[in-house]
Amino acid sequence: MKNNILEIAKNAKNAFLTTMNLDISVKNEALKKIAKNLEKNKNKIFEANNLDLKEAEILLKNNKINTSTYNRLKLDENKFKDMIKGIYDLIELDDPVNQIIWQKELDSDLILKKISTPIGLIGVIFEARPDCLVQISSLVIKSGNCAILKGGSESINTNKTIFEFIETALNNTEGFEKNVLNLIFSRDDVKKMLEADEYINLIIPRGSNALVKYIKENTKIPVLGHASGICHIFVDESADFENTTKIIIDAKTQYPSACNAVETLLIHKNYPYFDELKKTLKNKEIKLIENPENYSTEYGDKILSVKIVNNIEEAIKHINKYGSGHTDSILSKDDKNIEKFMKYIDSSSVFANCSTRFSDGFRYGFGAEVGISTNKTHARGPVGLEGLTIYKYELFGKNNIVNDYTSGKKTFKHKFI
Amino acid sequence: MKNNILEIAKNAKNAFLTTMNLDISVKNEALKKIAKNLEKNKNKIFEANNLDLKEAEILLKNNKINTSTYNRLKLDENKFKDMIKGIYDLIELDDPVNQIIWQKELDSDLILKKISTPIGLIGVIFEARPDCLVQISSLVIKSGNCAILKGGSESINTNKTIFEFIETALNNTEGFEKNVLNLIFSRDDVKKMLEADEYINLIIPRGSNALVKYIKENTKIPVLGHASGICHIFVDESADFENTTKIIIDAKTQYPSACNAVETLLIHKNYPYFDELKKTLKNKEIKLIENPENYSTEYGDKILSVKIVNNIEEAIKHINKYGSGHTDSILSKDDKNIEKFMKYIDSSSVFANCSTRFSDGFRYGFGAEVGISTNKTHARGPVGLEGLTIYKYELFGKNNIVNDYTSGKKTFKHKFI
């Protein structure tokens, strides 16, 4: 069993050679069967989740996990409903693969097509959130990829049970091979997975910054993930009081531990309502730290770093220096300043006059979210199904040779059709 | 000087904050000035190249480099002309960045735009080919990126001289900061560059498989490169004699050391002209190795592995197993088999009835080529300017907060506009 993970990876890679061309009707049929099978076995899933929760209560008492981990682990009626709805929403989306992106005549008898394709075998490592397993499995199926999945150890019973029902549904869908989805359990397995660069094309870690960092440092496989979410709001001279307060409160308190929550306020020195703003935020139990030692702290709590800046240039410089390239917003009535901010902030999402919390795949209308990427290759910002795709080139000839073109006998047309 | 490379990287990263928004007229002006400055100083460049060639002759005599390295190093009138023409061709291309990819109403007062952007700071390591330095510098400038460049040590004098004239041209172009392009020289510098993941967003190695492999193993930065070019031609039962021969000869002999040259022939067992084909290829001085021990050899010479297969399924299986995902071609008159081949070969370029040698950025009409990628993320196949770009999201609001949508007070429209 020493090479177990390599065997799993090899078999999954073989399965990909069929999933990559599955008809959209087959993929949607599989998703429908998964949704129905999970609904039918809801009680068993909740039972398994209760087992995990009992273990987690002990861990919680001994401070080995925190309340937010416990809450994420806990499945309830609402989460279950959202989980199922997520699958049906995904069914409604168009096939993200095997679409012609463009086609071009290289010559009148030589047609080049750029076709969207799935990537291949994807390794996903996610925290102890049972809904995450369902969401990721559905995304992988819809996009025609294969995956090796590792969930947080605290959710092991829930994951095993959910995975069993997903697997049964796939086995009952004509066209689906075995080995498309694979659940693994130990940290040692993850280590081996990170080494399987011969078979695995992409690693997606969903979890803490520490997890993402560990993974980036321990694999040659491309990693899609975000480093951290140091998001800023710059309050320009011309911003008003009411909207500024409303947006900051939303961006900080609507879900303080989200990566798109604001961490730092930059206030223009001539902003006229700074004192009232501070008072209002304090009333909302937001702690303000003026001139902190470190401007790169992701509080994940109702705390904000605050800095006065002399002008928009200083704000832009500060954000590009201390930010994490995630999401930054300007509040301003000055169109020129808004334009400058949008152009010169080098972040995946740059906003004007709205809350940083909009930075999210569902809110962007992607239907489902793989995660948020602060990478600057492959996929950036909120990543939907598109992040699980790449493309290939298909060239249809009529016995053409290159020598006719290098010799000057023929010339390329390069005409989009 | 210990942190010299880190300093260079930091300064280049700062320069990127201006190059990312340069107007296309400024970038084209810089390219024009570079072309003119190189033309004006042609003699000095040839003098520097002669210095390198003298050193290289000694290396060649002592078998420390081979003839093909020497030939690539040698600049001649034709190469110089092509080099300059390449710059003018690039000027003609549209700006690859700061274009709206799509825009969408999240709500009537909340507009999301997806905008193409340059990536940032790119590290390029290339072989001793002086034309490579010019080509890469031009691509980097046109796409609004910044770069650290390391050329093969044999071309050090030519590179220094060319780089000097590029730099003068940039310094004479209003809008261009210093530090946009940076030339480094030692292997030790490369090692430090590979460690500078805080500043560098992408590494592009252009050279041998060994170089690409070394780089992938020694950096956390994403790498865009191809592993190897094990390209196949599958000769189906229905292929004729004349075109089959013509295409194989083109794919093998037109430039045998190119990565898109064919390495393995798979012949359907019922192909009627196998004996004549073998005879003709041998007459063209192509050595055929039937049933070789290793089907993953990139000969880079006029040698071909040959295997008889029972059917197209066996051919597809062979290619997906032994190929490198670069370029594979089917020669057939059977439309169903062609369709099957195009769908089930998991390579970056899949061809029907034409030479594998068409797999190339210029031939695909990309104007210029960064390289050919067998990666399955970011960019795949021949990579043009697009491979040096990514995107960001700009969201324009009117004081919108997320809580209005999660509370059900408002709903998203998600309408493309």
From the alpha carbons, calculate the radius of gyration of chain A and give it in angstroms. Answer: 25 Å
Oligomer: homodimer
Shape verdict of chain A: globular
The mean pLDDT of chain A is: 95
How is the biggest beta sheet of chain A arranged?
A: 6 strands, parallel
Name the chain pair with the biggest interface and residue counts per chain.
Answer: A-B, 69 and 69 residues
Portion of residues in beta strands of chain A equals: 15-25%
Distance between the termini of chain A: 53 Å
Structure classification of chain A = alpha/beta
How many structural domains of chain A? 2
Q: In the CATH hierarchy, what is the class of the largest domain in chain A?
A: Alpha Beta
CATH topology group of the largest domain in chain A: Aldehyde Dehydrogenase, Chain A, domain 1
CATH superfamily of the largest domain in chain A: Aldehyde Dehydrogenase, Chain A, domain 1
Low-confidence stretches of chain A: none
Question: How many strands appear in the DSSP assignment of chain A?
Answer: 16
The proportion of residues forming helix of chain A, as a percent range, comes to 40-55%
